[in-house]
User: Fold these one by one.
Assistant:
Number 1:
Amino acid sequence: MSHRWERARRSGRLVTGLLVTGLALAACTGPAAEPKATAPAAAPVESGPLKVSVITHGTAGDAFWNVVKNGAEQAGKDLGVQVEYTADGDPGAQAKLIDNAVAQQTGGLVVSMANPEALRPSIEAAVRAGIPVITINSGEDKSAEYGALTHVGQNESIAGVEAGKKFKDLGKKKLLCVVHEAGNVGQAQRCDGAKTGFAGAVQMLQVDITNPTDAESRIRGAVQTDPAIDAVLTLNSQVAARAVSAIKSVGSRAQVGTFDLNSDVVAAIKSGDVVFAVDQQQYEQGYLPVEFLKLYRDNANVVGGGKPVLTGPDLVDKSTVDQVGQYVQRGTR
């Protein structure tokens, strides 16, 4: 055998050995291994505290929204999340608050949508910027369309139906439904639901929550002008107190039911001046979205399965007011 053939033979052995070794290594650890089906990768975990901006349409001094704020801030303390709460009852001003939060690169948005169309551009801009959004309280039917992860709140139509049924069961014949925020889709849904549940005569009355004296005057005028009104449904706990005062001042036989709780409503239920309150447990509307956004950031969890997370309705009357009232006093109901 020639020296040339011997060198070629040895070279061939070396190449073969290297190929075998390389293939063996590739089969164990390399990208050439047969891929296996796996679940989609979770979103990467970011370091540092999460910042959540809670932006609502609440008005200054509104006890309802103070409870929402309490829930959001307590969630922040419990979960190590930085929570910033702001509110403005004007839809244009609320949209600007959302835009500012996006510009400051907030880690998550919680937004109430009393006027969904006015907020749509701002919310969709947040989603395009990669900021997760959860809607609360109002605008449930537009939440998914605008790109929110989920909606947390009470279904207003269902709640309205329950309120209407309660008055029907009490034997009432004519209902006055008092709307205190013009253009609020949730309030329109409450009154429409009440019409369905009541199955009797229903009259609408528009008042302005920012002018309590005028609101009381309008309610007084309505029940005085039409003595057939024997039930008044208010959509806010503060308006409920005004309705009670208005009814008493003219000797009307109408009874008051309301949405939402505060200490005055608790006292009024105990005294019989208010027959029931529809509690949507708004503390949860503040607390849960902060928790959901942290779960999404840390573990790519989405809650609800494409459906809203309902916090109500829960009807509070004389049978349950003592138990619930203690939590109203501490600002969590």
Number 2:
Amino acid sequence: MKNLSKFKAFALLLFAVAFVSCDNSDDPTPMPVDNTITGIAVQNPNLKILVQALTKADLATTLKGAGPFTVFAPTDAAFTAFLKTTPYATINDVPKEALTQILLNHVVSGAVKSNALTTGYIKTLAKGNASTTNNLSMYVDLSSGVKLNGVSNVTTADIIASNGVIHVVDAVIGLPTVVTHALANKNFTSLVGALTGAGQPDFVATLSGAGPFTVFAPTNAAFTALNAELAPGGIQSVSAADLTKVLQYHVVSGNVLAATLTEGQMVTPILTPAQKFTIQLASGAKIKDANNRISTIIITDVQCSNGVIHAIDKVLLPVL
């Protein structure tokens, strides 16, 4: 009888152990989910190269941090296309410093959802190559979807992370030159047309160079006004040689930010040094050209990797 009681007790103990064991396997402790920007990128099968790049550049940990950040995230296909334009076979072959700046050019401070974007300039976290403390500018164009710097489209918007937001893009956004920003903004199509017109030097190659350059860039409206000012012949009546002088008159050496301009400052263009123009700051920043015509600076400090652009509302004219 004693042996039977011991057997029953042993059987009950085995049943209890088995029950607890089954209960634990049915309700495992859940693993924490990483919903940071980096964590979401790691989980996305189309962002593998981005994760590799962030890891190499020591930015994976940064994008796990508090933020908030907005990341325009290129797909694997975007990185593959980008690498074909470089001497590098894989993302790991890109020098770390260059890769860091390219990646930071896809990151904006704050959690910016798509409905908060507007057409115009925002600042990325990249510095680029220009010797300045001013961060690179990114041009957002909402005329048809969301296009960035004229080269990259948002394909999937508003992936919400715990420390910001991700917008997936279809192209890597390279560090913008003066030419990049002139091409990206549709308000500069007349300027681009003049710079690339027949009989002009290769302004595109020059303004894509190391620089740095400061460009006082007339808008389309400025060229329209000049056309009326030169009536009846209009801009078409200006010779190619004189148009070259006009365009050169808008380019200054150095990365000259708006805050460094001073009242009465005489500015010397790179290729027309004999003809200066004058800065006037009373009632807003203006320029008085060699013909005493006044132009207002309407957009300042569009930072490029090789200089800076300030938009103006009237074409500057040297004495021809």
Number 3:
Amino acid sequence: MTAALDPAIWRARDDSQERGDTRRLAHVATGIEAGIQADDPVLIGFACDAGVARNQGRLGAAQAPQSIRRMLAGLPAHDYKRLVDAGDVVCDGAQLELAQDQLAARIAQVLSAGARPLVLGGGHEVAWGSFQGLRRWLDGIGDTQPVLVLNLDAHFDLRTGRPGSSGTPFDQIAEYCEAHGHAWQYACYGVSRLGNTAALYERAAEIGTLWIEDHAMQERHIAQRLADVDALLARAGHVYLTIDIDVLPASVAPGVSAPAAYGVPLTVVEEIALKVKQSGKLRLADLAECNPDYDIDHRTSKVAARLAWQLLAPSKTQAEPKFR
């Protein structure tokens, strides 16, 4: 785990000679050594390709945390007072399970401080580490309320083979919750019928997954999808939101481990993410499968940075629009 803020990454143009608030995230970012305060937005990187390698995918997602940070650095701060960068959990070689355990420990630490963590993956093996961190915190405070795991993804990631990989995290969560008697609901929105075998659909049905395929996740469906999310939120005590960037069309997010031929528009993904955030039940979010090695003009990292900015931004009532 690296903790010190990297000035080579957190840098942005200086407009301090201009009028008004010209701060950018690079100007309010701080390392974890400065401490974590309640309600701080906290970034945690998960620099890992091991799960993708085990899942026979193309490597490169380990570079995503740094690439996304670079795109975040220049974004305007607006209502951000500060942004804590808790550094990266780095997977050493094939030691995936160790890295996931280290990630879980860091997430539990951030949640215990009353802060708001967002994890930048890495392959979608990040989800098993993320969930373990959330579960450790909940167990520590004796909270048994049901957890909604909402995955915006073209893939179920419910493979039953072991050892774990980027294709198994939600099956691992299902096994864990069944073994320990934890109440949870898995929902996967954006599923591609052409990206999942019949066996994966069967496993999804077996564990009670609620899924919606990509063709029903277009802009014309936003109102119904938001209503569906409201129904999910009503039954949950806590929410873990995980966004696999490959849920987006390849034209929007070319730099991913498995580009989507069809995909879900960014408008829909963002509206759902904001709906979850506004519920007050979002405890943890992560972004997975951004792969800078295959990106075009940082397009995918910029999309991931936008979603990260939206999820971590302090909540504020929107002002009424002014027209001139």
